[in-house]
Amino acid sequence: MEALGPRIAARNARVLAGVFVLCLSVLLSGCAGMFPQTATLRSGLPGGMSEKVELKQVPFFPQEEFECGPASLAMALDAAGAKVTPEELVPQVYLPARKGSLQVEMLAAARRHGTVSYVLAPRFLDLLREIEAGNPVIVLYDQGVWSPLTSWHYAVAVGYDYDSGDLVLRSGTIERQVISFPVHELMWKGSGYWAMVAVPPERIPATAQPDPWLSSVAALERTGDVRNARTAYETFLKRWPENTNAEIGLANTLHAQGELPRAERVLRDAARRAPDNPVVLNNLAQTLSDQNRDDEALPFIDRAARLGGPHAAAVEDTRRGILERLSSKKKN
User: How far apart are CA 285 and CA 282, in angstroms?
Assistant: First the structure.
């Protein structure tokens, strides 16, 4: 993304530092409205959270001109075990016409490298919790907060010190940039507090919620990375067992890998808990049919057909195929 010139950035940093010093004394009053996310932390961190964390193992890749997106993503992916350079990521995320990278491209590129990308809830505490859990967080800033021009910039949050009220970043050409919580919030606010993590499929972010995390795993599956998607679904079900949609996803990846008996077991378990789920019934019928067990498949697909709903056309296609195979067997 476009970065501020060195002199402008230095001037803005001095101004913002002055704002921080001023607001320390009045944070509970007027300035709390300017820094609502910082204000939520004033009563202390939740019990058990460390007050100081720094992920020193996160590598540093200084950005080339306008290429903070590839550099930030390369740092996060390397920390997740996906070894990739910013140069390799440039064609995947950098848009020359915009002189920067869109969030959707950052998320998609992370998935292409076998990780699950996840957008955090727009909460300062969630950012800190992810850092404490060992997950570097990519944040999107507007560095032009004191300028009429917006200047978007990606950085990687790798540490914090609650007592001093500081956040530690890998940013631009600075390997260890320390900024105050209010300065961070002032720049972060412009993006709607946007932040993301990229984690290996056997890990779940500390702040992940079931539905959005499952959507993130499904997005990885849609890239065609069946092996990592399977691991992610299995990991999901260890945390949130008996989630029907996750079982459907796991069964899909097992089916794609040719493990039909195991896919059948997963779907039978799901069907016992969700006997009126047409997707479960359809996929179970198809899995049985693919094992040349169309007689067993027919009752399941008939039940799915009776349910109707938005999947009726797909169910009817499956049913037609099963009936055709049964008819062919009878003729032979």
Answer: 5
Assign residue 193 the CATH number of its domain. Answer: 3.90.70.10
Question: Could you give the CA distance from residue 139 to residue 190 in angstroms, rounded to a whole number?
Answer: 11
Give the 3-state secondary structure percentages of the chain, helix then strand then coil, rounded to 5: 55, 15, 35
Model pLDDT, residue 33: 73
- At 86 the pLDDT is 92
Three-state DSSP class for 42? coil
**Residue 234 domain boundaries:** 210-331
**Would you say 156 and 17 are in contact if contact means Cβ atoms under 8 Å apart?**
no
- Can you give the pTM of this predicted structure? 0.88
With 60 as the cut, is the pLDDT of residue 27 above it?
A: no
Specify whether 105 is located in the same domain as 234: no
Number of independent structural domains in the chain: 2
185-206: per-residue pLDDT in tens? 999 999 999 999 999 999 999 9
